[in-house]
Amino acid sequence: MHTVPAVLDFNSPFPIAVPIVSRSFPLVPRHLTLLLGLLAFGLAPLAGAQSFSTLEERMSVSQFRAAGLDKLTPEELAELNAWLQQNVAGSTAAYGGQPASGGPAMADTGDGPVHSRILGEFRGWEGKTIFKLENGQVWQQVGNDPWRGVKLENPSITIRPGFMNSWTLRVEGYNTTTKVRRIR
Fold first, then answer.
1. Would the pTM of this model clear 0.85, i.e. be above it?
2. Domains: count for the chain
3. Do 119 and 101 sit in the same domain of this protein?
């Protein structure tokens, strides 16, 4: 078992031991460090920022790969998304709201909720479930939380925006929700 080197932080209201993290002693996994950095970087512009969808949310997997974006490191992709948010966000009117590929613009969901119907028979969700909507949009469940025991035809749904560009799907008449992301 490793011992954690620490230093006392006397600037906080309650002096606490703060671990010292270095590359030679990786206490925090890199993906967690990246996530914390992205959160800190992303929270600053939230005061007056509009909703912004990342490239991963706007593009299909095949478009993402075809553009070579899957070769970027997470840090490079975060920098590109930050640049796009700062310099391009909100300018969909400049190209008619449609991306160059001619597909639907992923930012078209706007800031408000999406009201539509799931096409065909709906039997709940089980993790990574795909939802094809009557309005042409396609959404995918982000988590693995299951909801079973329901069988509906073309149920009405509402997808509401949440914190940090997250979206939550709810089937009308039920109090169960799941996090989703738009894939088309």
1. no
2. 3
3. no
